[in-house]
Amino acid sequence: MLHVISDWLGALDKSEAPNILPILLHGAADELDQVQETSIALMEEVGQSRPPLEGEDVVPALGHAPLALYPRAFKGRPCRGARELVSECLDCVVRQIISELSDWSGITRSKAAATMLNVLVYAEDKIGAHAEPLLAAFSKACMDDEQEVCVATEKCIRLSGAFISAEVFVSIIDSNVRSGTSSVGSKKAWLAVLATLLEGSKCDFVAPLLPTLCDMLADMELSLPEAEEYQVHVLRVILACISTGGDACDSVRRRLLMFLLRLQALTETCPAVANKAGEGVLRLAQACNFAGGETQLLSLEALPVLQQICSNASEWRRDSHHLYIFDTMMRRAGMAIAPHLAICVPVFALAADHQRDADVRSSLLLLLDDLVPRSVFHPPPPCPLHLPLPLFFLLPSLPCLPLSCQHISPTLALPPHLFHFDSNML
């Protein structure tokens, strides 16, 4: 049948091509390798049999897509004639596939997604003219009830990221996720599309858009529920910004770090996300080319982050993002916190104020209770300044806090200067 279709493509009028071309394109996504190879070979034959075109065969505007994003049957870029054939039929083919992606039959939807992937291989950057309706269709298909449809759609989205301008797809998604009429379910789907597009895009195109992407993430932090099914896509966008943005992330490293620290604090509601966010901090340090890794990143950003989040500590509530960031920073930053304890002490002092939010006070007390035992050692090391987090010396300044101090050893020895605090700090 595939041979008959290829003969028709060469013999019939061009107006008939959109009706039969999808059959040959879908063959390249068949379960059988032999069918895939036959379909691609026939497309090459049809393309090469077309009249030669004038001028040179130009490189796509955004460059060649990595072969790893192509279906496995493709061994390289299709010939110029085959690409031109698909481009001539692109309007009709894309409309047809978009319609099939919302069909009642799961088999039809799966077939449409697989065919779309092959269309993208031949259409290359010409698919950009259809970006808006195509991405809208992807935002629904990537959340399909059928896992096979979701997987095939994700491959399409990733390859689209290599051919659709990052400026275009970020603008389209930005207008959708920050629309006043957009539901949380719609925002979740658009974030999933954005993360996958970023994974397929390139650093040169994503780097200038990192501030805009951070603005979008800040809005999504406020508008999405703290449930794993939503926060996982926020994390995916952050990680995609880091992996694709590379060293350009250095310009927005503080914002990315704060996003990750907030997610890392969600250990109760989103444990998998929290764990992955912890790994993201290390990735961010590597992307910024810090020789000292995570330690250097946290040392550089500890002061500005603490100044920003502690400035409104008196207004914190149980679900305040700054409280989440403070909690993670105190647990993770280690000795990077030590030079900035003057900022931290007044925050912990809030735990003794009975007029403050009870949940915030409880969170601060639990944080102190967790940090104090980590500073205990038997016997004391030669240099106490090498402690992971010497917060227990806050205790003389906070005598009214009901801490679990039974863990503190009477043999504990610290140099006197560590116990000195300016009374104005409290």
Instruction: Calculate the mean pLDDT score and round it.
Output: 84
What's the main sheet like? none
| Proportion of helical residues | 55-70%
Distance between the termini: 83 Å
Shape summary: elongated
- Class computed from helices, strands and strand pairing: mainly alpha
Report the radius of gyration as a whole number of Å: 28 Å
Strand content: under 5%
Number of strands: 0
Reading the helices and strands in chain order gives HHHHHHHHHHHHHHHHHHH
- Which runs of at least 5 residues are low in confidence (pLDDT < 50)? 375-380, 383-426
Give me the number of helical elements.
Answer: 19
Provide an overview of this structure.
- The protein is mainly alpha-helical.
- The protein has a domain of 149 residues.
- Helix content is 60%, strand content 0%.
- The protein has 19 helices and no strands.
- Helix 1 runs parallel beside helix 3 and helix 13 packs parallel to helix 15.
- The longest helix has 18 residues.
- The radius of gyration is 28 Å and the shape is elongated.
Task: Tell me the layout of helices and strands.
Layout: H1 2-11, H2 17-27, H3 33-49, H4 80-88, H5 90-101, H6 106-123, H7 131-141, H8 147-163, H9 166-177, H10 184-200, H11 203-206, H12 210-223, H13 228-245, H14 253-264, H15 271-287, H16 293-310, H17 321-332, H18 341-349, H19 358-374
What's this, in brief?
This protein has helices spanning 2-11, 17-27, 33-49, 80-88, 90-101, 106-123, 131-141, 147-163, 166-177, 184-200, 203-206, 210-223, 228-245, 253-264, 271-287, 293-310, 321-332, 341-349, 358-374. It is mainly alpha-helical.
